[in-house]
Amino acid sequence: MASFSSISKTLRGCLVKRNSNFMPTLSRCMSNVPESSVYGGPQPQNPNQRVTLTNLRQKYKKNESITMVTAYDYPSAVHLDTAGIDICLVGDSASMVVHGHDTTLPITMDEMLVHCRAVARGAKRPLLVGDLPFGTYESSAQQAVDTAVRVLKEGGMDAIKLEGGAPSRITAAKAIVEAGIAVMGHVGLTPQAISVLGGFRPQGRNVDSAVKVVETAMALQEVGCFSVVLECVPAPVAAAATSALKIPTIGIGAGPFCSGQVLVYHDLLGMLQHPHHAKVTPKFCKQYSHVGDIINKALLEYKEEVTNGSFPSLAHSPYKICAKEIDAFTHQLQKSGLGDAASAAADAAQKFVATKSQDE
């Protein structure tokens, strides 16, 4: 009863405050989160800032280009967020550019979810799309739906992307849409199908293949996909598909006539090449920077300064201990039989004093 009485008094204390701060005060009384907590947890998404399918449709109707870039971790997601990119794709290309594999096939669902969660924490504005990795949706429509649900519930994504246009993939896309999950299709070069494509080969370069690209894109639209990626197809084929569809097309190596474009984060920044691109760099990759060279230069400078002893300097050794405490510290070390340690501490203190005097 005493405990209940104490709680009642606290609540009454909150309720009697008749001012503009009433609700925040009540919330604080009812909350178990410290008022000045360092880590307050994820912030609620602002619907006025988050890109939605409605926003994409509006851009599409206005003939405004849509931007999409891949991201795989918190820092890359923050960069995309800051740049105002429309769509952030957590691609299975992480298998290559992050994990160092030659193809996208080895990455697992659990690995993809780790990437998805990290990106979701960093990107607050873009529409978040997660790839369904190879081997997680091909067996049945039910498997596809179950995997897509995990991408949203466990990965924090807004939508999923799946590759291919075989009847089973179309069925899977339809089932996922009917389950209430937004789906982005992907036709043309589908990296998960390199086994049957004979490698990373462009598609749509003859009549049958070109018609198949357009028909597959239309089939994906028919089952409810909100957008379709067109990868490594000739520009006229991409233009035909874009004209035939009433949903946005996102091109990668498909020319300038798509509704938007996507590039891999590491590729456009000019990071060090991953195993596949070290052998065959796609002709469509444009490097907007040479970040890999900048990273190499910084690492070499760091190594040199550590080797020659110029880092860390006084400027990068900010934590101080006063002379009185140093004397007491060295005395205690001497008493403990640690004479060498006491001398080392005293010498370090003297050097810092001398360095500080020179700087001044």
UniProtKB/TrEMBL annotation:
Gene Ontology molecular function: 3-methyl-2-oxobutanoate hydroxymethyltransferase activity; magnesium ion binding
InterPro entries linked to this entry: Pantoate_hydroxy_MeTrfase, Pyrv/PenolPyrv_kinase-like_dom, Pyrv_kinase-like_dom_sf
GO CC terms of this entry: mitochondrion
Pathway note: Cofactor biosynthesis; (R)-pantothenate biosynthesis; (R)-pantoate from 3-methyl-2-oxobutanoate: step 1/2
Protein's UniProt keywords contain Transferase: yes
Catalytic activity line of the entry: (6R)-5,10-methylene-5,6,7,8-tetrahydrofolate + 3-methyl-2-oxobutanoate + H2O = 2-dehydropantoate + (6S)-5,6,7,8-tetrahydrofolate
Keyword set, alphabetical order: Pantothenate biosynthesis, Transferase
Gene3D superfamilies assigned: Phosphoenolpyruvate-binding domains
UniProt KW Nucleotidyltransferase keyword: no
One Pfam family this sequence matches: Pantoate_transf
UniProt GO BP: pantothenate biosynthetic process
The enzyme's E.C. designation: 2.1.2.11
Function: Catalyzes the reversible reaction in which hydroxymethyl group from 5,10-methylenetetrahydrofolate is transferred onto alpha-ketoisovalerate to form ketopantoate.
Family statement drawn from the similarity comment of this UniProt entry: Belongs to the PanB family.
UniProt name for this protein: 3-methyl-2-oxobutanoate hydroxymethyltransferase
Organism: Fraxinus pennsylvanica
